[in-house]
Each structure stands twice: as C-alpha cells, then as structure tokens.
Write a structure and sequence with these properties.
Elements: H1 2-18, H2 21-44, H3 46-53, E1 61-62, E2 65-71, E3 76-78, H4 101-112, E4 114-122, E5 129-139, E6 142-149
Antiparallel strand pairs: 1-2, 2-3, 2-6, 4-5, 5-6
Length: about 150
C-alpha cells in the first residue's frame, strides 16, 4: 500500500510539472515578446529595431526569454546575449544532436510565416545545454525569434 501511495504521489508531481501554468505561460510570453518586437520593427524601422533587439537587458531581453533575429539566409542580425554571433551565417551549424535547426527556423518563416521549432541550445542563464522551443515570425526580410527552455 505504501508503495502505491509513493507511486501515486510521484505521478501527481510529474503531472504537475508537465502541466504547470508557468510552462505554457513561458511559451505565451515568448510569442508575445516576438510580436512586440514585430510591432517595434513596423513602428520604428528595421535598423532601430535591430539595435534595440541587440541591447542587453533592453525591452526584448528578459533573462531566459529574449528576442534574436536572423535574415532569410540564417545570418544572425541581432542578439542581446551573444553579440559575437551578429553577422555570422549559422545555417549549417547543428545543435548538439546534429539538427540543423536554423535551417528549419528559416524554412518555417518562409513557408508558414510563423511557427515553433524545437532543438537543443546552451542556456545563457544556466550555462547548460537544454531542450528549447522557439517561436519564429517573419517580418519583411527578418526572422524574429524567441525561445523558452523546456
């Protein structure tokens, strides 16, 4: 009986983690942050938006949640966490599992206009490689992205 109780409590704990409101909220927050950046692009222009998106601790950098941008060839054009990436084409750089996720990001933007892409990436806050899902939105010739770690 005690073993059944422990298993039941363990199952409840796992289900609580899987269906926790914070998990869904972070995906909603990621999408909302990208949509806010898209509105900024439209209101302020591409150059001003790329400068603002690249600003560490700016309005599009909320810790683990941050907007970054590619052009349509998968060259990073804005990044608040790692400015050394700006100007680099990363199309053929895979994640730790070998997935060419940037190719999928650009293809999703081009074919659907928006969507979610899953991959593994170094979390700049925890310094660990973690599963990540990223919301992608094409705005003109930009691909705006914001991901949340799972």
């Amino acid at each position: 009986m005690q073993r059944v109780l422990v298993c039941a409590l363990s199952l409840c704990f796992v289900l609580a983690l899987v269906f926790a409101p914070g998990v869904m909220a972070s995906q909603k927050d990621a999408k909302a942050l990208v949509e806010k950046a898209a509105a900024f692009v439209k209101a302020s222009g591409k150059d001003a938006a790329l400068k603002e998106i690249s600003k560490a601790k700016g309005q599009f950098d909320k810790g683990e949640l941050y907007v970054f941008a590619y052009d349509l060839s998968a060259t990073i054009v804005a990044h608040p966490k790692n400015p050394k990436l700006i100007g680099k084409n990363l199309m053929d750089v895979p994640d730790t599992d070998g997935k060419l996720f940037r190719k999928e990001i650009v293809e999703t933007a081009k074919s659907k206009g928006s969507g979610w892409v899953d991959y593994k990436y170094l979390n700049p806050e925890t310094k660990k490689v973690e599963a990540k899902t990223t919301y992608v939105l094409k705005v003109g010739d930009l691909v705006l992205c914001c991901g949340t770690y799972k």
